[in-house]
C-alpha cells in the first residue's frame, strides 16, 4: 500500500532476507542476549524476544523494569552492551545507511504522551515523516495526510488544529496517524491508552485491532492497561528480573507461577474477559491466584 514513486525503490528494499521462526512465521523483531546498562546499573541482561508479523504484542511489567529502555534500544535510541537485535532481518545498529533507511521506512512510533510538535497543525505533524523520507508534492502530502486522519477516526476538521486544541484522545489518534504516515509494517506504541478514560481507551484498542486486521499491521505495545492486554493483545511479554520472564497468550499469563505475574493477572483488577473473541477466561477474584 505504499504510494508509488515516493522513494527510489532501491532505497526502500532491504538487502537481507526475512527472519522466520521454527513454524515459518516471519519475525519482524528478533532480540538475542541483549544487555543494557547505565553506569553500574544493569537494566536488561541476556534478553531474548521475537515479535512476529501481524500480531499485537503487549509488554508489561513492574515500573522501572526496562520496558521503555527495551523499546528505545530496538529503535536504536539507547546503546546495548551485548547481544543482537534484528528488525526485519537487519541488524539496525550496525547496518549500512541504505538498510537503516529501509527499516525506518517500515516502522512507525507513538511515544508516550503523543509527542506531537506543538507549533505544527495535525496535518503538518502527520507530514513530518513524509518530508523526512519521501519526495512528494505538497498536494499529494495533503491528500495522504487526510487519508491518515480518516484512518484513525479523526474528523477532517482536526487537520488544521494545533495539539493544544485537541482532547487527550484526539492527540493519541493524531500521533497514531503520524506513526502511520509512511504505511509502516509495525508500529511501536508506548503507553498509548495512558491518560484516556476507559471508553476512549477501549476505542483506541478497537482501532488498533482494526488496523491489524485490515492492514496486517504488527503492533509492539508497552502498556499498563489490563483491558488492552486482555482485549487487544495476541501475545504478551512480561518484563522482570532484567529479561522477558514469560511470553505467550493471555492463557499462559493466567497459568504462570510467578508472584508479580500472579498478582497482576489475578489481582483485584483482573476480571472475566473475552480474549480475542475466541475464549472466555474466568480469572479468580481478589488475588486468589
Ligand atoms: N538514559 C538513561 N540513563 C540512566 N538510567 C536510565 C535511562 N533510561 C532509563 N533509565 C533507568 O532504567 C530503568 C528502567 O526504565 P524504564 O523507563 O525502561 O522503565 P519502565 O519499565 O518503562 O517503567 P514504567 O512502567 O514506570 O514506565 C529505570 O531505573 C530508569 O531510571
Description:
The longest helix is centred in the C-terminal third of the chain and has 18 residues, at 198-215. With 289 residues, the protein is α/β, with parallel strands linked by helices. Helix 7 links the parallel strand 8 and strand 9. Helices cover 33% and strands 25% of the residues. The protein has a domain at 55-66 and 109-276: Rossmann fold. Mean pLDDT is 85; it is low at 1-12 and 273-289. Helix 4 packs across helix 5 (138-151) and helix 4 packs parallel to helix 6. The chain has 10 helices and 13 strands. Strands 7-8-9-4-10-11 form a 6-stranded mixed β-sheet. Strands 1, 2, 3, 5 and 6 form a 5-stranded antiparallel β-sheet that branches. It has a two-stranded antiparallel sheet with strand order 12-13. The radius of gyration is 19 Å and the shape is globular. The structure holds adenosine-5'-triphosphate. The site of adenosine-5'-triphosphate has 10 residues, from helix 2. Keywords: ATP-binding, Nucleotide-binding, Transport. Belongs to the ABC transporter superfamily. InterPro entries: AAA+_ATPase (IPR003593), ABC_transporter-like_ATP-bd (IPR003439), ABC_transporter-like_CS (IPR017871), P-loop_NTPase (IPR027417). One of its GO terms (molecular function) is ATP hydrolysis activity. This is ATP/GTP-binding site motif A (P-loop):ABC transporter:AAA ATPase.
Amino acid at each position: 500500500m505504499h504510494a508509488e514513486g515516493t522513494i527510489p525503490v532501491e532505497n526502500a528494499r532491504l538487502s537481507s532476507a526475512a527472519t522466520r521462526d521454527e513454524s515459518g512465521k516471519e519475525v519482524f523483531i528478533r532480540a538475542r542476549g541483549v544487555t543494557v546498562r547505565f553506569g553500574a546499573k544493569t537494566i536488561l541482561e541476556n534478553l531474548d524476544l521475537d515479535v512476529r508479523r501481524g500480531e499485537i504484542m503487549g509488554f508489561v511489567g513492574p515500573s522501572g523494569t526496562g520496558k521503555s529502555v527495551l523499546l528505545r534500544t530496538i529503535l536504536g535510541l539507547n546503546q546495548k552492551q551485548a547481544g543482537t537485535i534484528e528488525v526485519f532481518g537487519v541488524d539496525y545498529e550496525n547496518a549500512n545507511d541504505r538498510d537503516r533507511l529501509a527499516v525506518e521506512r517500515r516502522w512507525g512510533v507513538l511515544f508516550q504522551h503523543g509527542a506531537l510538535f506543538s507549533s505544527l497543525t495535525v496535518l503538518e505533524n502527520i507530514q513530518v515523516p513524509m518530508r523526512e523520507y519521501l519526495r512528494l508534492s505538497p498536494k499529494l502530502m495533503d491528500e495522504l495526510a487526510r487519508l491518515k486522519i480518516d484512518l484513525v477516526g479523526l474528523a477532517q476538521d482536526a487537520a488544521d488544529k494545533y495539539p493544544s486544541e485537541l482532547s487527550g484522545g484526539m492527540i493519541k489518534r493524531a500521533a497514531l496517524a503520524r506513526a502511520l504516515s509512511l504505511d509502516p509494517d509495525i508500529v511501536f506504541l508506548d503507553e498509548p491508552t495512558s491518560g484516556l478514560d476507559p471508553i476512549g481507551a477501549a476505542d483506541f484498542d478497537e482501532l488498533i485491532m482494526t488496523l491489524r486486521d485490515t492492514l496486517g499491521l504488527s503492533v509492539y505495545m508497552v502498556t499498563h492497561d489490563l483491558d488492552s492486554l486482555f482485549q487487544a493483545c495476541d501475545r504478551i511479554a512480561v518484563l522482570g528480573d532484567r529479561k522477558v520472564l514469560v511470553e505467550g497468550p493471555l492463557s499462559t499469563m493466567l497459568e504462570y507461577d510467578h508472584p508479580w505475574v500472579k498478582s497482576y493477572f489475578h489481582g483485584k483488577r483482573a476480571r472475566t474477559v473475552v480474549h480475542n473473541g475466541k475464549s472466555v477466561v474466568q480469572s479468580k477474584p481478589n488475588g486468589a491466584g
